[in-house]
Specification:
Immunoglobulin-like, Glutathione S-transferase Yfyf (Class Pi), Chain A, domain 2, about 750 residues, single chain, alpha+beta, Transcription Factor, Stat-4, ubl conjugation, five-stranded mixed β-sheet, four-stranded antiparallel β-sheet
């Protein structure tokens, strides 16, 4: 079943999450119509390879054309119209930057896998549950409602100012008319009546001026209250969701809604500012004793400018955190002399600012807060924000060619740093710009989340562990001294994040049983771990009991093994993986002989093994585990083929495959058949060898189990065969297999 087919079977609450990340950047119609083709392409690799991305974009457009031909024959007018529009959109948007669509599709597929994994979990984790809090959703709706009400109030006040202006013009005309009369005419009864009418108009003007100033004051107060409370909380929540998304959590959204709120508030404040300027014009033409404008206007204008300063400062955000294109799922880990990308957005989207704001990027601006290692940024570090490059037309800028370079003056300190020192040092990428608009000049600054600088890819796993721990443990965006005294983390939240590592990196998260095994490995046998606090040292620095590696190094090696060698089997859910030897025997002991399961080695880094249950002649149950397969051995032979072809020699018996059923009772070929590279009977005959005179060869995994073994459970009994064992094998294999075996 395709991934898209699985997505369509999800409950409505999960489908709503899927709906959030499909838009004009990558329309859902294309995802639906080209589901199998899209899933068969390597979009992640293309996101780092422009030539590959170009080919994939061309092929995508060809696929869309083929769908157009099909629906044209079916005379589906609506679909024809939509596909033509989508094709034009895709070609226009990504023709100059094909890697962008590769990144978008890769992210969409990864997020689908994460949601599928979350849907398979019996309960949501504590972090994800907090991000989807109904109180937060209600606050979002309240903010949007209040912003809309403020905008309406500002527009209504515009009408009041216009009425006041018209009233004052009438007053000016009538007053000047009287002033132009001869003195004798001014004493007439009619003129006296007119003077009384003008006094009434002046009273009305005074009342209206006070009324308009009152309304302006209320609009300013409402904006102030909204910015101080709900809008600030919304922005902080978005930043927290971004932190969680960076370490594999749910894809964060809501920035477009925030942009709409910020923009409407800015427009309202500028509208109020114009109203105050208009009142100043009216003041120059007419003033009187007790006039409220000269008293109240300066205070109101000062408050408006103050709010505009704060609104702009809060609106300058890092939309996409620093990330190397070569490691899209490891953001905030940067390698010296390797390019990284980072994207910023101004949430106040005003056409007047297009190409008018130049942003400068620097690193470790406040050098006193970081280590004695110093870096500079090479590449284009000053760019203008614009609305043309971003797919949704936001006012943004993306730096794509920045490279961190370590300054030579700090080289002498490297020798004094331990293996964890570099990966626990936090640095900051800072950005600054200036906005000049309508007589205001506002300096803006923002910073990325803390990043870790590495000089060798071997440091990446520990650096990523630091990024995980920081963003799990704190919502402080700039605590560069965090690892001077790193706090403990709640184990239940850490396990949730570890599951995200699997769902985001290898397409399938961990279930509760797998997480329980990891919990036991981290803290030993405990009844409950919901409130258990785990230290940073135990997670990443201290070796596991009796081992020469840490928990995190062990887990990272498993992720790497899955990604490179057994990914399809993992995604299908056929690898139990995280199960202890004790639990393994409990699961298998009552099963049919030949039932087996797959688990990751606890003693070897990046190893996977299988254990099967057998029954002796006396009825006793016995278990056999094969020596773990590592990436070296799996590079030579696909794991599915190993399971298919595996043979065991017991004493002088004919070699046979002991693996019959995948736990609990799935026939082996049903589980793994689609992943076999070829069927045994499809191996080339000698005559197919290209006339070279050689017999084509295949690898056959074989183990020998001795009758006199004192410990039949030991993996050492199941090492690959020796030459003498191989000779026995040749005596017992069928001629067809002998013909193709070495």
């Amino acid at each position: 079943m395709s991934q898209w087919s699985q997505v369509q079977q999800l409950e409505i609450k999960f489908l709503e999450q899927v709906d959030q990340f499909y838009d004009d950047n990558f329309p859902m119609e294309i995802r639906h119509l080209l589901a199998q083709w899209i899933e068969s392409q390597d979009w992640e690799a293309a996101s780092n390879n422009e030539a590959m991305a170009t080919i994939l974009l061309q092929n995508l457009l060809i696929q869309v054309d083929e769908q157009l031909d099909r629906v044209s024959q079916e005379k589906n007018l609506l679909l024809i119209h939509n596909l033509k529009r989508i094709r034009k959109l895709l070609q226009g948007k990504y023709h100059g930057n094909p890697m962008h669509i590769a990144v978008i599709i890769s992210n969409c597929l990864r997020e689908e896998r994460r949601i599928l994994a979350a849907a398979s979990m019996p309960v949501q984790g504590p972090l994800e549950k907090s991000l989807q809090n109904s109180v937060v959703s209600e606050r979002q709706r309240n903010v949007e409602h209040k912003v809309s009400a403020i905008k309406n109030s500002a527009q209504m006040t515009d009408q009041d100012v216009k009425y006041l202006e018209d009233l004052q013009e009438e007053f000016d005309f009538r007053y000047k008319t009287i002033q132009s009369l001869e003195q004798s005419d001014k004493n007439s009864v009619l003129i006296k009546q007119e003077m009384l009418a003008l006094q009434a108009m002046l009273n009305t003007l005074d009342y209206k001026r006070k009324e308009v100033l009152g309304k302006i004051g209320r609009v300013i107060h409402e904006i102030d209250m909204l910015m101080s409370n709900m809008l600030t909380e919304e922005l902080l929540d978005w930043k927290r969701r971004q932190q969680i998304a960076c370490i594999g959590g749910p894809l964060h959204g809501g920035l477009d809604q925030l942009q709409n709120c910020f923009t409407l508030l800015a427009e309202s404040l500028f509208q109020v500012r114009r109203q105050l300027e208009k009142l100043d014009e009216l003041l120059t033409r007419l003033t009187y004793d007790g006039d409220p404008i000269p008293v109240q206007r300066p205070q109101l204008l000062e408050k408006v400018n103050f709010l505009l300063y704060n609104l702009f400062r809060n609106s300058f955000v890092v939309e996409r955190q620093p990330c190397m294109p070569t490691h899209p799922q490891r953001p905030m880990v940067l390698k010296t002399l390797i390019q990284f990308t980072v994207k910023l957005r101004l949430l106040i989207k005003l056409p007047e600012l297009n190409y008018q704001i130049r942003v400068k990027a620097t690193i470790d601006k406040n050098v006193s807060t970081v280590s004695n290692r110093r870096f500079v940024l090479c590449g284009t570090h000053v760019k203008a924000m614009n609305m043309d490059e971003s797919a949704n037309g936001s006012l943004s800028v993306e730096f794509r060619h920045l490279q961190p370079k370590e300054m030579k003056s700090s080289a002498g300190s490297k020798g004094n740093e331990g293996p964890h020192m570099v990966t626990e040092e936090l640095h900051s990428i800072s950005f600054e710009t200036q906005v000049c608009l309508y007589g205001l000049t506002i300096n803006l600054e923002t910073s990325s989340l803390p990043v870790v600088m590495i000089s060798n890819v071997s440091q990446l796993p520990n650096a990523w562990a630091s990024i995980i721990w920081y963003n799990l443990s704190t919502n402080d965006p700039q605590n560069l001294s965090f690892f001077n005294n790193p706090p403990a983390a709640t184990l239940s939240q850490l396990l949730e994040v570890l599951s995200w590592q699997f769902s985001s990196y290898v397409g399938r998260g961990l279930n509760s049983e797998q997480l329980n095994m990891l919990a036991e490995k981290l803290m030993g046998q405990q009844v409950s771990y919901n409130d258990y606090q785990l230290s940073w040292a135990k997670f990443c620095k201290e070796h596991l009991p009796g081992k020469s590696f840490t928990f995190w190094v062990w887990l990272e090696a498993i992720l790497d093994l899955i990604k490179k060698h057994i990914l399809p089997l993992w995604i299908d859910g056929y690898i139990m993986g995280f199960v202890s030897k004790e639990k393994e025997r409990i699961l298998l002991k009552d099963k049919t002989p030949g039932t087996f399961l797959l688990r990751f080695s606890e003693s070897n880094l990046g190893g996977i093994t299988f254990t099967w249950v057998d029954q002796l002649e006396n009825g006793d149950v016995t278990f056999h585990s094969v020596e773990p397969y590592n990436k070296g051995r799996l590079s030579a032979l696909p794991f599915a083929d190993i399971l298919r072809d595996y043979k065991v020699i017991m004493a002088d018996n004919v070699p046979e495959n002991p693996l019959k059923y995948l736990y609990p009772d799935i026939p082996k070929d049903k589980a793994f058949g689609k992943h076999y590279s070829c069927q045994p009977n499809e191996v080339s005959k000698p005559s197919d060898g290209g006339g070279k005179g050689y017999v084509p060869s295949v690898f056959i995994p074989v183990s020998k189990i001795l009758n006199d073994s004192t410990d039949p459970h030991s993996p050492s009994d199941l090492l690959p065969m020796s030459p003498s064992v191989y000779a026995v094998l040749r005596e017992h294999l069928s001629p067809t297999v002998i013909e193709t075996a070495v």
